[in-house]
Amino acid sequence: MSPPPPNPGNGDALPPDEGLPPTLTASARRVVAQRSAVLASAAEQTVLITGASGFLGRACCAAFTAAGFRVCALVRNPAASADLQTVAQGGIFRCDLPDGIDERSLDGGARALVHCAYETRSASPEQARRTNVTGTEALVRLGRRNGIRHRIG
After folding, report:
1. What are the beta bridge partners of residue 115?
2. pLDDT band at residue 35 under the 50/70/90 scheme
3. Phi/psi class of residue 17: alpha, beta or left (left: φ > 0; alpha: ψ in -120 to 50)?
4. Is the four-CA dihedral 16, 29, 106, 93 of positive or negative sign?
5. pLDDT digits over 4-22, tens only?
6. Cα separation values, 106 from 19, 56, 111, Å
């Protein structure tokens, strides 16, 4: 039987920072370490993560990558998100909700969709609703059409 994984909450050493973005805070690194010990085996399984350039999305990318999942990062501006390459080996794709979803991100037969994208700086309540409600509905429909059964958001 192998020893239990480190538990940073109990003062155990954190796993190496290999593959984690340098901008991740110490608390986000602890979350990654804790979640990595809990996630199931993930050999060759793909997870899509929206809002991957944000705080929560970036931490999710790191956690799923550390657990062995192939991560596809979905962001508004892929050109400005090259720093995600180490935690998004499935690719970095455009996802500007509700209309700008790069469907190539779904080509790999994703197992799950983790929805972290959220409009917080909109010019109006109508635009926030369009992004957050209409965009989420479009994303869920697209995921269902492509066989994604697990959605977290």
Report:
1. 50
2. low
3. alpha
4. negative
5. 544 444 444 444 555 566 6
6. 23, 21, 10
Query: Strand pairing of 150-152 and 46-50?
Result: unpaired
The whole-angstrom separation of Cα 100 and Cα 135 is: 9
Beta-sheet pairing, 150-152 with 112-115:
parallel
Cβ contact 49:73 at 8 Å: yes
Is omega for the bond preceding 98 within 30 degrees of 0, making it cis? yes
The owner of tokens 């720093």 is 83
Check residue 124 and give its pLDDT: 87
Residue 39's pLDDT band (cuts 50, 70, 90):
very low
Residue 151, burial from CB neighbour count under 10 angstroms (0-12, 13-18, 19+) = middle
Smallest CA-to-CA distance from 48 within 113, 96, 128 is with: 113
- In the numeric block, the tokens 């209409």 are attached to 134
Per DSSP, 3 falls in state P
